[in-house]
Amino acid sequence: MAGLKEFNAVDDSPYNILIVDDNQSNLFTLHSLLKRVKNIHVIEADSGEKALKIVIEQPVDLILMDVQMPEMDGFETAKHLKMTSRTREIPIVFITAVFKAEEFIKHGYEVGAIDYLTKPIDDNLLISRLSLYTNIIGRKRAEESLLHAHQMLEKRVRERTRELTIAYNQLKEVDKLKSTFLSTMSNELHNPLNAIIGFASMLRRGMEGELTDTQLDRVTRIEAAGQQLLELITEVFEISMLESGSVKAKAETFSMIEVINEAVAKVKPDAERKGIRVCVKKNGDTSIRSDREWLIKCLLNYLSNAVKYSTGGTITVCASEDGENIQVDVMDEGIGIKKEDQERVFLAFERLDTPLSAVAGGTGLGLYLTRLIIHNLLKGEHALESTSGKGSRFSFTIPKTS
């Protein structure tokens, strides 16, 4: 993932150890000993002044410094180091040939030293102490790196939250504009379409027997096309309202069987023309308190699809009580749906690629709209079981009391 390197808490860069001694022989000896410790980079200074210049120019993790030096001794050099925030935290280990505990306590710790070594230096003791200090420095590096990572992450989270908040507010504004646009356009389109459909219907009925077959066919086509366009506009508007949450369910008490019979009555003529038998069954008390209008729309979508994609057989609609819920199943003996297509049919503008699709028509919005009604409005669940060539069972389960 991009950016993870910024949060890597492992810092394996060498430890910069500054050795300060006015005696070149001592510098050489110390340098040689320090080479035996892994991951060490040694920097040399033969005076306090040069040591101060080095720590200003480059990072230093630990200073091994001789106490007795001409011009500026170790104590004075340490005092200067403690005067600035950049250098005051560098640990100092003094090296002295003449050690007096009282003097070191009085001056060494006072100027910020953490330890001392006496000359001649014990090789093993030096290496042991140095390993200890580098381990401590390593842990401090890790803590600082983790702190930095945490701060960077917090900063990124704040920035991302701010960006998402802006994006969310923009989406809400766009969604509001879309809903307003669709609402306005729906009203503006409904009126002329209703006029076209109405006048075409009046023309067909009022001039029955006077129109030629060609004229009658054209008027009928105008009426049918207008009705299809009106249904599409209505579906798009309803989907927009359901997606935005601007529509609320109206609670009224009724029998689910009554609603089913009402929906069946509307599709029965088309079913009978195709030789399809429609039957209704119930199991238990099907009284419910919900939104009747939206339920009829769901049932019509299920039933219309069952009729469209069947060439005969029986369509069975069953309402059954299950504790606090009612389940409605619409079962047909039609062409069925392949397993890989069963999720897709509930998406917007998706239609099955079958020989019946071209004849059946439709926009591919019906099942998507039904899913929105069941989930977003009626707080229920939908399901589909189907076997290609053997039929389908579309169902939904909703609470008995909304």
TrEMBL record:
The PTM 4-aspartylphosphate maps to 66
User: Which molecular function terms from Gene Ontology are attached?
Assistant: phosphorelay sensor kinase activity
Enzyme type, top EC level: transferase
Q: Which residues form the Response regulatory domain?
A: 16-134
* Chemical reaction(s) catalysed: ATP + protein L-histidine = ADP + protein N-phospho-L-histidine
- Pfam families named in the record: HATPase_c, HisKA, Response_reg
Sorted alphabetically, which InterPro entries does this protein's record hold?
2C_system_His_kinase, CheY-like_superfamily, HATPase_C_sf, HATPase_dom, His_kinase_dom, HisK_dim/P_dom, HisK_dim/P_sf, Sig_transdc_His_kin-like_C
Q: Which UniProt keywords apply?
A: Kinase, Phosphoprotein, Transferase
Q: Please indicate if the UniProt record lists Ribosomal protein as a keyword.
A: no
What CDD domains does the entry give? HisKA
- Recorded protein name is histidine kinase
User: Superkingdom of this entry's organism?
Assistant: Bacteria
SMART domains in UniProt: HATPase_c, HisKA, REC
Q: Where is the Histidine kinase domain?
A: 184-402
Q: What is its EC number?
A: 2.7.13.3
